[in-house]
Amino acid sequence: MHEYTVLQSVESAQHNGDAYMLLQCPVCGTTGALYFERNSYYLDRCPACLFVYVRNVPSEHALADFYLTGHSDEGVFVPVTQKRLSRRFSKGIENWWHAWNIVRHARGRRRLLEIGYGEGHLLKALKSTARFDLEGIDYATAPVSYFRARGLRVFSSSLHDRRYPDGHWEFIVGFHVLEHVQHLDEFMKEVRRVLADRGRVYFVVPCVTHFSAVRAGPQWKLFGPPGHLWHFSVKAMKRFMADQGFRVIFAHCISNRPHLTVLAEKTTG
């Protein structure tokens, strides 16, 4: 556990929108250097593992306000069939590729959970393979009835609130989830708990060392606190997953899109 300072005053935390301050890189413990400031948040960059992180991590109260005002659709869910044809085609190809990549690396693991299923693109692609016993969870409430009516088992819940038994899942998927999590260590501890022995995780996150991110610098479109808190390099992701009790099978950032994909297996003992 790396060093951080918890704000003791509830009033101060809510006023400042900060839950705690990171004094070191939360991945490797190196003292970071200020990269830039945006929206009253300071983003530091680790000189050792190149991890970019929000120094003053927002409180749950501040995050709730942000997502409510910035992403609310007033309870109306718009399915993908009503959106732009080009976007539908692009997402369809991407999720088909990821679905079959997951099938290939699952190696017979059938019980699969998707955390943050969003618009359900990947969940539907995975169902079409007929290889998994699937479940999806997401904070959003609007899509639940839509997807349940189409035969998908989905819930509006966080991972912690679902209270799964130990070792319940054999494969866990999260697309653009880790960068939003307030407490990374706590989240990954719960992921590891609900995974079976030799269970696997497949995460996709923004890649801070992708050529487009390096070229754009602080103006990179995926820097956006408090929505995105953590920005991984491949080196940082490998270190982070190993420290969380996982054997990294691969971690790469070789797409034309600025995404890092990691597949890792829960270690035993």
Automatic annotation (TrEMBL):
Q: Which Gene3D superfamilies match?
A: Vaccinia Virus protein VP39 (3.40.50.150)
Q: Matching Pfam families, A to Z?
A: Methyltransf_23
What is the name of the protein in this document? 2-polyprenyl-6-hydroxyphenol methylase
- What organism is this sequence from? Paraburkholderia solisilvae
